[in-house]
Amino acid sequence: MFTCAVVFSTVKVVMDVMIPMQSPTQVLIVEDDEAIASLIADALSEESGAHTRCLHNGREAIAFLADHTVDLLILDYQLPGANGIEVYDTLRRSERTMLTPVLFLTANDKRAEFQRRGLAFMRKPFNLGELLATIEERLAAREVSAASS
Prior knowledge:
By secondary structure, this protein is an alpha/beta fold.
């Protein structure tokens, strides 16, 4: 709570203003390479204060997202359990997760499939600065679409 004092010539008005604290951005990273997942999670936490969770299997991601919401999903294409496209398609069938922004990471040459489907992706190996900028863009686009709905 902040106290705000405003003086209008001879009248002093004091107000207690409740300013809601915005909760930190929640990002789920689904990447089977633990070193890459940790690199992304650490960078996001340090750069933006985002809360991150790392999972290493497509089926784990589907189960987790059945009970939790996130602001952004960073999804590797090649995962054990279910590949990234299978995870994505499953999430799009659920009202709870159908609008969750997704950024794919891939070492495979799946550019044509991602472009055909209009999916955001980055190729591995990636530049960490470019990845963070792309994540920021995806989150900003989410905020704009949420504000307009």
